[in-house]
Automatic annotation (TrEMBL):
InterPro entries: B30.2/SPRY_sf, ConA-like_dom_sf, Cycloisomerase_2, Haem_d1_sf, Lactonase_7-beta_prop, WD40/YVTN_repeat-like_dom_sf. This is Uncharacterized protein. It comes from the Eukaryota. GO terms for molecular function: 6-phosphogluconolactonase activity. Pfam families: Lactonase. The lineage of its organism: Eukaryota, Metazoa, Ecdysozoa, Nematoda, Chromadorea. Belongs to the cycloisomerase 2 family.
């Protein structure tokens, strides 16, 4: 089991990058190292070995590739930095194109540009840029276009991206033409004047649901993709829900939305409020068809200006920019619990879990045991760059045959396709068969658990296999 995680923390200070360990058993932070990269504003990691950072202070190295090695960071041994537009890079996302190449997308809040870059595996190179021109001019911060967030449209594409524009009261869907090296707007969705959209996320399981956090109106908007690339507003919720634990900054009058996230299990939508009231609010998905949410928990952020947070296991970790601290809270069933620890770093802006350190314990074979929850298990295929936080087939470059519905899911296809019968306790499911009968397509030996308490017994050849592959080979020879 994972005993510790290593978190890279991007800071807006002169020393702008830190590695921090967090002990998942003790709930304790420890500072591991610091790095002389200044004024970092965002981090992104696509593969276990590399993390990307954008900087507003390293000229001409504003996009940096770093190698994760032995739980530390080093400059990648290659052409590992390029200069982006000098316009205040605000957001960075990365997506694998192949097993060795990565596409990076950057939003420039200051100039109204978005920009792409590609990493071939040996060289970082600049890609096309696009400058937005429309702005709503409703508030003083909407005097120009201000794209704040850029993320892939779904977990399969490397050419279509969502962009939120705070200055335009819009979120866009843009397309990258790889051959022509141009960017175009596919369509856009308008918000209420003065909303100021900051972040956007697609739900990892209920993929038709899109969540938008507005910075200026402190709202969480729920959209539904009613037809491809067409988004309809279903629900609107204020994130300003009072709590006795709110951290109040008496010297500040402004109030804005901060960060938006979804819990590891996909059950909870989380947002931060910053300014006069500094808090974290948690919503649960009540009805995925209508996009209705319910308030589950509200808690003070443990400091001032919570610009970023992340969840890992039973913990919520918050980066409070103006109080210069990371705070860890217990987080179970959507409820923010007691503060367990904090560590002080100057001007923390973003975080990324870059490594997990397993507890060293003897390995044992797991067999069927009393009270096993075997209704939420899948087997299938992952690659070495596939995430491990979702069921098989719910992540990019992953496929899985699920026991609860008998469907085959692949590369973020949450709808699934009928593949074979359901399976549960007592069934024998091999990499190519169920109870000795082979479905039409091959499966591969990866096991995923969608809930705590699942039990499986794995046969790596110590016993005879139920599936008689030799018999099938003979049949194929005769056909």
């Amino acid at each position: 089991m994972t005993a510790e995680i290593v978190i890279m923390v991007a800071c807006g200070a002169a020393v702008g990058l830190f590695s921090v360990k967090f002990d998942l058993e003790q709930g304790k932070f420890s500072l591991q190292d610091s790095y002389n990269y200044s004024k970092l504003s965002y981090l992104s990691q696509t593969t276990p070995n590399f993390v990307y950072a954008i900087s507003e202070g390293l000229d001409p190295e504003s996009l940096i590739k770093l190698q994760v090695s032995s739980n530390s960071l080093n400059r990648a041994n290659q052409s590992s930095s390029i200069n982006l537009l000098k316009t205040g890079a605000a957001y960075l996302s990365s997506r694998s194109i192949t097993n060795t190449s990565t596409r990076l997308a950057v939003a420039h809040y200051g100039s109204g540009n978005i920009e792409f870059a590609d990493d071939s595996g040996t060289t970082l190179s600049n890609g096309p840029t696009y400058k937005f021109t429309y702005f709503s001019n409703v508030t003083s911060r909407q005097e120009a276009p201000h794209p704040h967030c850029i993320i892939p449209y779904d977990n399969m594409t490397t050419t279509d991206y969502f962009v939120t524009d705070l200055g335009a009261d819009r979120f866009y869907l843009v397309h990258l033409d790889e051959s022509a090296k141009t960017i175009s707007i596919t369509n856009y969705t308008s918000l209420d004047p003065g909303s100021g959209p900051r972040h956007i996320l697609r739900h990892p399981k209920f993929i038709e649901l899109i969540f938008v956090l507005t910075e200026l109106s402190n709202s969480l908007l729920v959209y539904k993709e009613t037809s491809p690339t067409i988004f309809t507003l279903e629900q609107k919720y204020s994130t300003l829900i009072n709590s006795s634990s709110d951290n109040i900054d008496k010297n500040t009058t402004y109030q804005t939305g901060g960060h938006l996230g979804i819990s590891d299990d996909g059950q909870y939508i989380i947002a931060s409020n910053r300014g006069h009231v500094n808090s974290i609010v948690v919503f649960g998905v009540e009805n995925s068809t209508r996009g209705t949410l319910k308030s589950v928990s509200v808690n003070g952020s443990g400091g001032f200006h919570p610009r970023f947070f992340l969840t890992h296991g039973n913990y919520l970790i918050v980066a409070n920019r103006f109080s210069n601290n990371l705070v860890a809270f217990k987080f179970e069933n959507g409820t923010i619990g007691a503060k367990v620890d904090e560590i002080f770093l100057q001007d923390p802006i973003a975080m990324q879990v870059v490594a997990k350190i397993d507890k060293q314990t003897p390995t044992t074979n797991l067999g069927t045991a009393p009270n096993c929850n075997n209704n939420d298990i899948g087997i299938g295929l992952n690659t070495n760059i596939t995430g491990l936080r979702a069921m098989l087939g719910w992540d990019y470059l992953s496929t899985g045959y699920h026991g609860d519905d008998g469907k085959l899911y692949y590369s973020d296809s949450h709808r699934g396709k009928i593949y074979g019968p359901k399976y549960s306790t007592g069934d024998i499911v091999g990499c190519m068969a169920r109870r000795g009968v082979r479905p039409d397509h091959a499966l591969y030996p990866v096991i995923g658990f969608g809930a705590i308490g699942g039990c499986v017994r794995v046969n790596f050849g110590d016993e005879s296999f139920v599936y008689d592959i030799k018999s099938d080979i003979e049949k194929l020879k005769k056909s």
